Amino acid sequence: MKKNNFLKLTKIVHALFIVSTIITIFIVYKNIDNSFSIKFAMGYIIFLLLYSGYLTFVTIKNMRTLKWLDIRKRLFKSKRQILPTFPCF
What's the confidence (pLDDT) of residue 65? Predict the structure, then answer.
């Protein structure tokens, strides 16, 4: 797949994640108890597992294009930005 296709798929998956999270929070908050809400919540849990696997796959796929030196620079750059904001480190 081309990068543009992954970008479109990622946007769709993120949108689906946001919408389903809002619906699930609403179901739990309002204490809606019927067969559809239980099936939706179970489907949401399965979706979360698949979503985390997809994000891991895309992250590893994108990291393979980077050289080790670039990865190391990005890791150390992010640590320098975080450390001054938290004096306990």
Answer: 80
